[in-house]
């Protein structure tokens, strides 16, 4: 079972975290299942950028971003070449390391 190492984030996991999730699980689902309550305003339907993450290691093991995800990422705060929407990023067999950006463009944050 692959692991996801999460860099410290002041709101979601101040100490950082390392979690496991089955291959075939999205990074967003894995985070939520492990009580790391990343924003996901569109309920993981690939219609916003609130679940934006930056994949710091293991990017090549993940599924390719589709055109809809790439179009949305153009609007994400802090976009980097390794940026992905965690709701669209599916784990394979390799471990990954991610960073959750400090900000999102979500103006109406809700508790999920």
Automatic annotation (TrEMBL):
The keyword Cell membrane does not apply. GO terms for molecular function: 2 iron, 2 sulfur cluster binding; electron transfer activity; metal ion binding. One of its GO terms (biological process) is P450-containing electron transport chain. Gene3D superfamilies: 3.10.20.30. PROSITE patterns: 2FE2S_FER_2, ADX. Residues 2-104 form the 2Fe-2S ferredoxin-type domain. Its cofactor is [2Fe-2S] cluster. Keywords: 2Fe-2S, Electron transport, Iron, Iron-sulfur, Metal-binding, Transport. The keyword DNA-binding does not apply. GO terms for cellular component: cytosol. InterPro entries: 2Fe-2S_ferredoxin-like_sf (IPR036010), 2Fe-2S_ferredoxin-type (IPR001041), Adrenodoxin-like (IPR001055), Adrenodoxin_Fe-S_BS (IPR018298), Beta-grasp_dom_sf (IPR012675), Fdx_isc (IPR011536). Belongs to the adrenodoxin/putidaredoxin family. This is 2Fe-2S ferredoxin. It comes from Acidovorax cavernicola. The gene is fdx.
